[in-house]
Amino acid sequence: MLDHRAGRTWRALEDTARSVQSLRLMGPRWQSWRRGLDYYPEGELIWLDVDTLIRRQTHGQKSLDDFCRLFYGGPSGAPKVVPHTFNDVVKALSQVAPYDWEKLLKQRVNAIGARAPLNGIEQGGWRLVYNQNPSALVDAEEKQGKYLNAFYSLGFLVRENGELEDVIPGSPAYDAGIGPGMKLVAVNGRRWSKHVLRDALRASLEKEQHIDLLVENSEFFKTYSIAYSGGEKYPHLERAEGPDLLINILNPLVK
Question: pTM for the whole thing?
Fold first, then answer.
């Protein structure tokens, strides 16, 4: 989902941490545009980027583990507070592997851009792809949350009661005029359900179809026609060229 945050085009990752007091209290509507507590999951992607770069720069001789030992390690003794700065992080990384870590981290944390930092995945020998089949995680989340995730196709998440919880700015649904808080009533003249919407999406796999969504907005009803092709879309990781660094990173240190 981080790769579909429309708010990436105006809000830097650092600001999601600075604004945590307000973002934590916000509801799900317009979260894609506002961004959420993205510094948690995106921080993992940033450190994956760092880890794969260290492994490549040192030909597999060192990893992020070496940075952690250097940066967090020290003599045993009583607990104490050891403050550090951004420059301390850069210095420790440079001791592990030569690279312009200052530029990389500032770009990842302070810059804005439309795409999530997927470099670590790609450098690790994998790539992000989309296909018709929801992953086990997406399937479990949909069942537990009682919603259908059409973020990656039409651009919205819809609850079982038809409530459109969020709509991604720039998506087909958003461009048609649909927004969060509206309620989906019918799809192509049939009462809305997960199966009905999925049937409409699957019909668009081979060629463009007009998907007509009857939507309730307060006391008003309107049909929005969306020209769409591509079927259902769900994210997956697919093996690419190069060494599989991710499997090495995920292996436990102690067996």
Answer: 0.90
